[in-house]
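Pilot study result, target chain (264 residues):
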Amino acid sequence: MPSISDCKCVLVIGSTSGIGRSLALAILDLPSQPTVIVCGRRKERLDELVASHNATGRLKSVTLDVLLERNALKSSIEEIVNTYPDLDAVLFSSGIQRAFDFTRPDTIDLDSLECELATNYTSIVRMITFFLPHLIKLGEQGRPTFLYPVSSGLSIYPAAGVPDYCATKSALHSLSISLAVQLKKKNVHVVEIIPPLVESELHGFQGTTQGLSRFWLTLEEYTKETMEGLVRGDPYVPAGTAVDRYKKFEGGKLEAAARLYGQS
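Predicted structure:
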């Protein structure tokens, strides 16, 4: 299977911090020397990232809010594709996590819950839909192209304290399997990245960083393990504790989905 080492131009959505930022810089360091486009809402962070890591001139930036209205999001993605016609891989790392206690339904902030759903799932479905015409065209020309959705080990084994987050990641996990099967013949490779609990700003909003830091995989360790899987061209890339969870509960699902779709 082709791998990320075959990519000429990789867009990393959600790369102003955490997993997205770390993977973007690791991809930039690949011997294949791809162009890497860091992408997010916070322009000042993107500017800092490019200023401090662009000795090669291969690091670019694009400001994008994934929660833009549908037509505005489509226009933004068309502009990205027109600016970077060599774009052959998109990594979706944007995400938020909120705690909800359904034993106290009066405390559930539905605006916050629906924002989490839109950020972690709906916006990604929209963006995939808008990027696909370009990626399919390249694929049909003989160039392998890639979609890299970032789900979570919690898509497999949920944590009850963050129920909506787990549900959004489960939806993305299921979608990734289906798209991997559908798009295979189009030379568009869907590779799901499945992190465990990883050192991240994601947990700061809830004040859980201090407690979780005793258990999480450091960002450096996580990035090294994940990049090894991406370079190998693995069809899915769990890391840390997510490896055993995937093997126990998800092993064989991709192949079963392919058989159900009529693919051997």
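One observation from the pilot: The beta strands are 9-13, 35-40, 59-63, 89-92, 145-149, 188-190, 192-194, 236-238. A full batch analysis is planned for the follow-on phase.
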